[in-house]
Design goal:
Serine Threonine Protein Phosphatase 5, Tetratricopeptide repeat; 12 helices
């Protein structure tokens, strides 16, 4: 692995917590499974648990190299699911114990038929009737996470469905609920790295829904 110039310097990084040389040490320690080095670095600067460089994080390296003790420690100290699908990475490599650790720590599942994935798919399909039926049959789905730690409220915001947002809020969804990367629903109105608002939301969708609400006196339109 080649050390980037920015990670050779003992200077704060622009886009990431931590100083360049410390972030590099975190990466190398995660790869080696050097838990003592991780502890020493985090004692010096706890924000390093959230450090990253070009979409790589200490946790991503720990998962890639199947370093269970390091991954567990990072998760216990605030590591986030910031970039990429670490669960998929563990599954693709056949790291069963790592996959279980991630699922248990983040409250997610890599199963495409999991409850979090099912309701997420219904929201992305803009099937408000199906979303409502799923919630009626299992009210706990309002907090169910998909493999990227999105809850239904995150998907409702990313897909700009005001009627679904209202439905979820009346059922107890947390408007300030954070994803694994720390993102709040309000921060996702333009989508995220994987779901782009400009690309994946129908061009006229937001205007049409807002107009429907106005015509109905602020009451969400039906499905």
């Amino acid at each position: 692995m080649i050390q980037p110039e920015a990670l050779r310097k003992d200077e704060p990084l622009f886009w990431s917590p931590g100083r360049g040389a410390d972030v590099w040490e975190m990466f190398c320690a995660a790869i080696r499974g050097d838990l003592e080095a991780i502890k020493r670095l985090l004692a010096k600067d706890p924000s390093l648990v959230r450090s990253h460089y070009e979409y790589r994080t200490p946790l991503s390296f720990a998962v890639r190299e199947n370093q269970l003790a390091v991954a567990s420690y990072l998760l216990e100290h605030g590591a986030t699911f910031a970039f990429g699908n670490y669960l998929e990475m563990a599954s693709d490599r056949g790291y069963g114990d790592m996959q279980t650790l991630l699922e248990n720590s983040l409250g997610i599942s890599g199963d495409s038929a999991s409850s979090g994935e099912v309701i997420a798919a219904a929201i992305r399909d803009r099937d408000a009737f199906r979303v409502r039926n799923l919630l009626e049959s299992d009210p706990t789905l309002v907090q169910a996470k998909d493999a990227r730690t999105n809850r239904p409220i995150h998907w409702a915001v990313m897909t700009r469905q005001l009627d679904v947002i209202d439905e979820l809020l009346t059922r107890g969804a947390d408007i300030d609920g954070k994803r694994g990367d720390g993102a709040l629903p309000i921060q996702l109105s333009n989508g995220d790295y994987h779901f782009r608002g400009w690309r994946d939301v129908p061009r006229n969708w937001s205007t049409r829904i807002i107009n429907n609400r106005a015509r109905h006196g602020g009451v969400p339109a039906g499905p």
